């Protein structure tokens, strides 16, 4: 199989440098898998329910509790994202909190970042 002069082996080499994937058939199937309501719900189920909500203030447990209301809307957004290659801009916002590595902060290098992403972004399959 070849697309615009790039063969399957070249794709494997290129993608392997990022993902280290050994099972290429499963990996390729995942790249072209159609997003459906079952995939949306499975992705939601994989989220940690007590996780921090991020900038929008909505945690995974809220989405899970009201999954029948949220899942169809998220499916529409996920399908749109896969078609257009873009996600809602608000999903890219995050809270960045510098956390001290050691007591008595002297320099910026004594801090580590704690980033709280929007739960919708974490939900994206």
SSE inventory with pairings:
Layout: E1 2-3, E2 6-7, H1 8-19, H2 24-32, H3 37-46, H4 60-65, H5 67-84, E3 94-100, E4 111-117, H6 119-123
Antiparallel strand pairs: 1-2, 3-4
Helix pairs in contact: 3-5
Structure description:
The protein is an alpha+beta fold and 125 residues long. The protein is extended. The strands form 2 sheets. It has a two-stranded antiparallel sheet with strand order 1-2. Strands 3-4 form a two-stranded antiparallel ribbon. It is built from 6 helices and 4 strands, in the order E-E-H-H-H-H-H-E-E-H. A hairpin with a 2-residue loop joins strand 1 (2-3) and strand 2 (6-7). The two termini are 27 Å apart.
End-to-end separation in angstroms reads 27 Å
Q: What is the chain-wise order of helices and strands?
A: EEHHHHHEEH
How large is the radius of gyration? 19 Å
Largest sheet: 2 strands, antiparallel
What fraction strand? Answer: 5-15%
Q: How would the global form be characterised?
A: extended
Low-confidence stretches: none
Structural class: alpha+beta
The number of distinct β-strands equals 4
**Arithmetic mean pLDDT:** 82
Continuous helix count:
6
Bin the helical content.
40-55%
Major sheet: order of its strands? 1-2
List keywords for this structure.
alpha+beta, two-stranded antiparallel ribbon, 125 residues, 4 strands, 6 helices, single chain
A few lines on this structure:
Helix content is 48%, strand content 14%.
């Amino acid at each position: 199989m070849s697309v615009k002069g790039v063969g399957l082996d070249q794709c494997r080499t290129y993608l392997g440098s990022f993902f280290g994937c050994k099972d290429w058939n499963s990996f390729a199937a995942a790249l072209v898998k159609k997003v459906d309501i079952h995939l949306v719900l499975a992705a939601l189920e994989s989220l940690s329910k007590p996780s921090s909500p991020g900038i929008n203030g909505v945690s995974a447990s809220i989405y899970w509790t009201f999954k029948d209301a949220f899942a169809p809307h998220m499916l529409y957004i996920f399908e749109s994202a896969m078609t257009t290659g873009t996600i809602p801009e608000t999903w890219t916002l995050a809270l960045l909190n510098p956390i001290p590595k050691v007591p008595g902060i002297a320099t910026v290098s004594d801090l580590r970042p704690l980033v709280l992403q929007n739960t919708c972004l974490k939900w994206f399959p």
